[in-house]
Amino acid sequence: MAEIILTIVVEVVKCVAPPAYRRICYLRKSKYTSNLQNLKTEVDNLKSERVRTEHQVDEAKRKGEEIEENVGNWLGRANNVIEASPAITLSLMKLALRNILSELEDPDVDMLGIYGMGGIGKTMLAEEIARKVKSDKLFDQVVFVEVSQNQDIRKIQGEIADKLGLKFHEESESGRANSLFKRIKAEKKILVILDNIWENLDLRVVGIPHGDGHKGCKVLLTARSLDVLSGKMDSRPNFSIGVLNEEEAWNLFKKMAGDYIEGSEFQSVARDVAKECAGLPVSVVTIARALRNKRLFEWKDALEQLRRPYATNFKDIQPTAYKAIELSYNKLAGEELKNIFLLIGYTAISSIDALLMCGMGLGLFQGVNKMEVARARVRTLVHKLKASCMLLDRISKSEEFFSMHDVVRDVAISIASTEQIALTATNEQVDGFRVWSDESAVKRYTSIVLQDIKTNVLPEVVECPQLKLLFIRADKESSSLTIPNNFFKRMIQVRVINLTYMNLLSLPSTLGFLLNLRALSLCYCKLVDISVIGGLKELEILCLRGSDIKQLPTEVGQLTWLTLLDLRECRKLEVIPPNVLSNLSHLEELYISCRSFQKWEVEVEGVKNASVEELKHLPNLTSLELDIHDVNTLPRGLFLEKLEKYRIRIGDWYWESTNIWRREFRLRLKNKICLKDWLIVQLQGIEDLELRELQEQDVNYFANELAKVGSSELKFLRIRGCSDALNPPAESKV
């Protein structure tokens, strides 16, 4: 175990601290017992080196000297090691990690598993294994994917494909599986880690070859139950994870709460609090973070709360873990943060965008009425929840995404249910109308969340006078779920409706009665006629992302209070009537991506489509994502100067999208157009600029314009002319 952590420390220290590197290399030859104590010493040395380097950087900045990039990189890596090494050391100390690595090298083993109770550290161990086999080059590729309780085959396929650089061109699940199968077969040695398995997952349906299908592909699973691994997945061998011992738990607790608790008036009560966590890492971390920098009486109160007997409705959660997470929830600062935590928990929201839409629709952000201000608030709240260890970063995702530990989520759902905030159910619970049977209870809830619904189980009408939020997600492969016409009749207070993967060829007429509705999301739904939404005069957010709608109705132009319109991935959208967009005078954010509408100014079935020129008449527009294939439809002047952020791509080209938002402008011309004669582009403020296949005079034009406005905000620049059309663009980082 010490060798694993030493490897992390070595990689940080050796580049700038040769003496420390030599000391650590010596430790590799020592016995593990002495290494553990020596490791603590070396981490302390690294802390001292970090402080000394930070002082040198501060002094250089005061003198106006430029700081080399590798210095900043070293500090960042040092911080990561100092933060991560104690937690990793403690959570893995009793584990047979070397045995797992040995099994991965055994040619007769193609699938193995790790199991243990929720919050025990399975994911942390799997991540450490991924890091170790990468550093030791045991596999050519390592792919880590979270499966979760609500199994989503397309999502799993997409995550694996992203890690392997594979782009799907198939729509069907089987077609994607075939492409993924071939891509994985192309790797000589590959490890696929499937984290958090709850039930049987057919690897053939996903597109993962293993065993005789591909001897070079090995699969590592994590689950709470041995039965899932050995019985349903036929995984052999499988390794059990136990809890931390008392001293390991105390060391981790000190790290998360702060070393100040040792040798002070806090030590006695802090030790007792740590004991109550029963060796569960998730309990230790959340409690320690919640009590960090709290006063002594708050520590004593927390201890009393943890000692009270408690029963939970979740059979897989230990009462100790439940009480610890509930206490951490109670310690969150302010009702706004608590509400956001519960909302993320019971809706399973995992992105800043989705949380923004939902939070704004519910009016959770007091005094905030601008989308960009709200977005900053959402990011701040998510950051606070991560700092409290109540949220996690998504692996290999940008800061726009986050996740919640499944044990933490279960507690959030329980709290929301107990406080009669949210009623949540899956297909099995909804089937047979069981979820609707207690009408008096349904009336009291302010949120209803139904996940992975497979059959038409919605009642004709449901009495929900207090309802503010309705989430219904149909099962992807059974998206025939429809909504009865009178379903919304008695939900007059609802403010947010989110329907996903549903068959809504014609929206129920009663939807038009919801005069308090502020946010409507119809993502990945089958849509034909949505004209009824014209009656939703107070609607502020409309998301049709991924839906198969063909024509945006003129009634959308009546939604004059709309602040956000999302039409990304609407592949079949062919008609946007004139003056619909320009009527949305309060619109602040508009998203129309490359896989969506392209027929600007084109006549379709007797209707001439809208012009890009209309966007210039939206006085409040601050965020824009827009792809235009036909450069001839561009207006004179692209009004970029008034936008806070944008992603604009022009030309017949498939542009790779990123999750990183910046002021991005990309242009590709395929015909003999002299750009400067008819297009004026405001270059000031652009952060990412790419120009392809331009005429020489156009390249010169842009170069001159850049010289005029300066490049203080430009971070990436790519320019090439027609002669380079077949070559990859040269990229400069400014």
UniProtKB/TrEMBL annotation:
MF terms (GO), sorted A to Z: ADP binding; ATP binding
GO biological process, one term: defense response
Domain of life: Eukaryota
Positions in coiled-coil regions: 29-70
Domain AAA+ ATPase: 108-247
A Pfam cross-reference name: NB-ARC
Tagged with keyword Ion transport: no
KW Repeat (keyword) present: yes
Keywords: ATP-binding, Coiled coil, Nucleotide-binding, Plant defense, Repeat
Family: Belongs to the disease resistance NB-LRR family.
PANTHER family assigned: NB-ARC DOMAIN-CONTAINING PROTEIN-RELATED, RPP4C3
The name this protein goes by in its record: AAA+ ATPase domain-containing protein
Organism, scientific name: Citrus clementina (Clementine)
